[in-house]
Amino acid sequence: MDLTSKKVTNEEKVDLCTKYFMIGFAFLPFVWLVNAVWFYKEGFQREEFEGQKKIKRMVIMSAIGSSIWTVGFISWIVVFNYFRVEWGAFADRLSFNIMVGKP
After folding, report:
1. Which of 19, 36, 41, 89 could form a disulfide with 45 if both were Cys (CB 3.0 to 4.6 A apart)?
2. Are 51 and 14 in contact (CB under 8 A)?
3. How close are the terminal C-alpha atoms of the chain, in Å?
């Protein structure tokens, strides 16, 4: 869907933005990132229209949610790699690939 097309109404844009935001709650932070990037111009750079405030709110919350998830993922990767050897068999059960060799 091309958001710059005249065939797409503002109501459809608000509806799509809301759907993407709700889908992001299904542990899909990438959808929030897409939502924030895709609807940024609609929310912040276009002339005022009905529903724009909702798009702004959804874009901001999507960006915040995606950022929190990204920080969480990076933190988990760092913690897991730092403590993997100390956690022993538990870490091996969490691992998809079990590394071979000396730590």
Report:
1. 41
2. yes
3. 50
pTM of the full predicted structure? 0.81
Q: Distance between CA atoms of 85 and 99, rounded to whole angstroms?
A: 10
* DSSP state for residue 96 in the 8-state scheme: S
pLDDT tens-digit readout, 22-77: 999 998 889 999 999 999 999 999 999 999 999 999 999 999 999 999 999 999 99
C-alpha separations of 27 from 23, 32, 70, 93, 103 in Å: 8, 10, 12, 22, 32
Dist. CA 83–CA 11, nearest whole Å = 50
Helices (H), 39-51: 40-44
